[in-house]
Design a protein that fits this description.
The protein is of the alpha+beta class. It has one domain: Alpha-Beta Plaits. The protein contains 3 helices and 5 strands. The chain has a 5-stranded antiparallel β-sheet with strand order 2-3-1-4-5. α1 packs antiparallel against α3. The longest helix is centred in the N-terminal third of the chain and has 15 residues.
Length: 99
């Protein structure tokens, strides 16, 4: 099993647009093969800090997710809404990879 924690700081004036786009992306992602969980959360201390927690059956399923057409659309849509690039941690069997 693979876990992913993705953290994104969003520009305050872009918060609502980010949430709207994220809802569409999450709905499509949950339909993907191997997606066991995909949830977005907001920091209690910073309403513009979003954390997505994902759970995948395999690394192959996660790799396919990264190549999905809705993810390409999401990356292009969300890029100008962010303060900085998303920080992604992939966790498996006690091993953490950071991108």
């Amino acid at each position: 099993m693979i876990y992913v924690v993705a953290t994104t700081q969003v520009k305050s004036e872009c918060r609502e647009a980010f949430i709207k786009g994220a809802k569409d992306c999450i709905a499509e992602t949950r339909k993907e093969k191997g997606c066991l969980a995909y949830e977005s959360h907001t920091s209690i201390n910073d309403p513009n800090l979003f954390v997505v927690v994902e759970r995948w059956e395999s690394r192959e399923d996660l790799t396919a997710h990264a190549k999905a057409s809705h993810m390409k659309v999401w990356r292009e849509y969300s890029a100008p809404l962010k303060v900085s690039p998303t920080v992604i941690e992939i966790i498996s069997d006690g091993h953490v990879e950071t991108f």
